Predict the structure.
Amino acid sequence: GQYAAVGAAARGSLPPALMAMDAGLRRLTGDEQSRLAAVRERFQQRSRSIGRYVEAYRRYCWPVDSLEGWKLAPFHLLATEGKVHVDQDHVWHMETLAKICQHDPNFLLATEFRVVDLADPESEAAATDWWVELTSRGGEGMVVKPYDWIARGNKGLSQPAVKCRGSEYLRIIYGPDYDTEQNLERLRRRGLGRKRSLASREFALGVEALERFVKGEPLRQVHECVFGVLALEREPVDPRL
């Protein structure tokens, strides 16, 4: 709904604006015509961007009248009876979930994944080619994660995941004309340190909540962690990050 409204508003307003400017260009001459032509070119670019924006969001939206219209693509098996699976690596999670998805392939979609050896240039190049091909046909992108579910580096807990979205999907997140040079320059200046810190703390609290729940601890102790996550979610950071 929110995406369609943006597309509908732009498609309803930009064509009349372009027609009005075309009429003005026919009447004006000299510098005035040149200035208006520059404005018209910006509006024409916006119109092209809106077309690509509408095409992008429609890949992820469809009418749903019943459960048959839903699609789920799981990528973590967080816990089962008596067990939290943070001790398993991501390959185990993906392969286990792929087996579960086979039982209802119309509802559950096995998520594609690749294991990349960062010490092997050929492995990196193959992953890059796969991402480029995926996003060029409309895919959202990928989520980059350490091999282990919980990874630690020299500075402690590593960030559990980083989204790497395709250029067209980013139109849905940052707006139809995010890729103009002016907007890209503004987006490059975003500070990500606070978001990374919040993500790590939310991750740790989420794991602790799962551990307490699976062990059968009182719900008030589970809720301590849950409310901690909710409090961190209220921190004033860009929700699009």
The mean pLDDT is 92.
